[in-house]
Amino acid sequence: MTIYAALGALEQGLVYGIMVIGVYLTFRILDFPDLTVDGSLPLGASLSALAITSGLNPYLSLILAMIGGFVAGAVTAILNTKFKILHLLASILTMIALYSINIRIMGGPNIALIGAATVFDPVIALGVPPHLASVVVFSLFAALVMALVIWFLKTEFGQAVLATGDNPQMIISQGVNTHLIIIVGVGLSNALVSLSGALVAQNQGAADVGMGIGTIIAGLASVIVGETLFGASSVTRAIIAAVLGSVVYRLAIALALGLEFKGFAFSPSDLNLITALLVIGALIAPKLKTRLTVR
């Protein structure tokens, strides 16, 4: 694997690590299987791209993207809590609707950002080489998001979010409105996913309606890999492990795509197969380790 491939995997791991934190919030903390993320990631990208091409500051476009993602997540949660639609079905319905909404926002299947202002310009202006600017920016955003999410989960409301996912009956008996907790939690999760999508679009120079396909698979794979390698004994450790798992996942993908053995090599079309193998390995590794230790 070349240094450029490693840098590319690192920057992807960091920027998608923000998305992975969002997936962790719903699947691990709230115990809410949410497929909305496949639609909220391109939603964030499309809103940011539209805002930038309309003359809005690229940093302000990130706020717009997060608001859009929060609304998308809140819609899924409302369908589940208020209208009693199964969470999986509710998220699928929102995801399907977002496909059309994203095309409507962009006025087509994609928006190009070539030559437009991005969040990387101020960093490049400071003298950072263009090929390293994205790593610097994504590192700062990932660190900021991790710090804010860890702080949020230690607040009184954050503790209520943790309790809602862990023991909903107990928290209901304490008089807590779990419907509000779920709506805010799922909304926050998708806000982070949309932020990730907006940053990815600015880095790639375009927003595309299909860029969210497979997001949930990559997110879950990163969470599982991170928990397996780095542990999840506390919320702080689990959040950090989620981002590190995203980096490891992207590095593993880059390494697998660069391998060649006796004429056989993986191609980009094998990405889902590689992901499945990584997740299977991460899931069975602890059990194999336990069996070997017992023997």
Describe this structure as you would to a colleague.
With 295 residues, the protein is mainly alpha-helical. The protein has one domain (3-211). It has helices at 3-29, 37-53, 58-81, 87-106, 121-125, 130-153, 156-166, 168-173, 178-204, 215-230, 235-258, 271-294, and strands spanning 110-112, 206-208, 260-261, 264-265. A two-stranded antiparallel sheet has the order 1-2. A two-stranded antiparallel sheet has the order 3-4. A hairpin with a 2-residue loop joins strand 3 and strand 4 (264-265). Helix 1 crosses helix 10. The protein starts with a helix and ends with a helix. The mean pLDDT is 93.
In short:
With 295 residues, the protein is mainly α. It has helices at residues 3-29, 37-53, 58-81, 87-106, 121-125, 130-153, 156-166, 168-173, 178-204, 215-230, 235-258, 271-294, and strands at 110-112, 206-208, 260-261, 264-265.
Which percent range fits the helix content?
Answer: over 70%
Query: Sheet bearing the most strands, described?
Result: 2 strands, antiparallel
Number of strands: 4
Mind telling me the C-alpha Rg? 19 Å
Question: Structural class of the secondary elements?
Answer: mainly alpha
Biggest β-sheet: strands ordered side by side in the sheet: 1-2
Order of helices and strands: HHHHEHHHHHEHHEEH
Task: Specify the number of helices.
Answer: 12
Which segments are poorly predicted (pLDDT under 50) over 5 or more consecutive residues?
A: none
**Overall pLDDT confidence:** 93
Number of domains: 1
Strand content: under 5%
Q: Tell me the span between the first and last alpha carbons.
A: 37 Å
Shape: globular
